[in-house]
Design goal:
The complex is a heterodimer.
Chain A (H helix, E strand, L loop, with lengths): L2 E6 L2 E2 L5 E8 L8 E7 L6 E7 L12 E3 L7 E6 L4 E6 L8 E8 L5 E4 L3 E5 L2
Parallel strand pairs in A: 2-11
Antiparallel strand pairs in A: 1-3, 3-8, 4-5, 4-9, 5-6, 7-8, 9-10, 9-11
Chain B lengths: L3 E4 L2 E3 L6 E7 L7 E6 L6 E5 L3 E2 L7 E6 L2 E6 L9 E6 L6 E2 L3 E4 L1
The chains are: A mainly beta, B mainly beta.
Chain lengths: 126, 106
């Protein structure tokens, strides 16, 4: 049973950068799965941020293995460190609208998120 | 982009009732429709994937059906533990998207 453990700063200043880590245990990040990030503003619904294949953002032949929500793609990067069995979310140029609980998830071969991290509340405030 | 619209937004029911939540997609697709349950302060949990396949460990009183553009989640014989918020999600095409959620209340 794979387990996802999230870490990262909970308070970030406006215009700053959000950096979150998701550690994977109970399985290898290099298994044939995708890895995703989802967020949830306080009191609101789930918002899909993006997804990455275990090989990382770009394959050896230059083909992209990551996909981001168009509204965020100029500010977001998802990456993978297979040696440490973890993946990351970076979101730049933060505003108050980015305040949310951020979740990491494993997306399985049926393209469903079957394991989730515990969530981290990130507040954008000075 | 595919927009997912859930109805109703909220629903009141009693233990033992049967309820159905509907998710309508803005484009037609046949599969890659998932349902999640979320309780307050907790991460979502996968209930149904690929329209109608029950995730391991999920009680059989949960079932999914439909094909694009309309999909349904039905819960029979409601139990106290089922009162939560439910979300549909399409993973047919990027960007993936969720419905706005249905809050099931006692």
């Amino acid at each position: 049973q794979v387990h996802l453990q999230q870490s990262g700063a909970g308070l970030v200043r406006p215009s700053g950068t959000l950096s979150l880590t998701c550690d994977v245990s109970g399985g290898s990040i290099s298994d044939t799965n995708w890895w995703s990030w989802v967020r949830q503003p306080p009191g609101k619904g789930l918002e899909w941020i993006g997804i990455i294949y275990h090989r990382g953002e770009v394959d050896d032949d230059g083909s992209a293995n990551a996909n981001y929500h168009p509204s965020l793609e100029r500010r977001v990067t998802i990456s993978v460190d297979t040696s440490k069995n973890r993946f990351f979310l970076k979101l730049t140029s933060l505003t108050a609208a980015d305040t949310a609980v951020y979740y990491c998830a494993r997306t399985n071969q049926q393209l469903a998120d079957d394991s989730w991290g515990q969530g981290v509340l990130v507040t954008v405030s000075s | 982009d595919i927009q997912m619209t859930q109805s109703p937004s909220s629903l009141s029911a009693s233990v033992g009732d049967t309820v159905t939540i509907t998710c309508r997609a803005s484009q037609r697709f046949a599969s890659y429709l998932n349902w999640y349950q979320q309780k307050p302060g907790k991460a979502p949990s996968l209930l149904i994937y690929s329209v109608s396949r029950l995730q391991g460990g999920v009680p059989s009183r949960f079932s999914g059906a439909g094909s694009g553009p309309e999909f349904t989640l039905t819960i029979t014989s409601l139990q106290p533990d089922d009162f939560a918020t439910y979300y549909c999600q399409q993973t047919h095409s990027f960007p993936y998207s969720f419905g706005q959620g249905t809050k099931l209340e006692i």
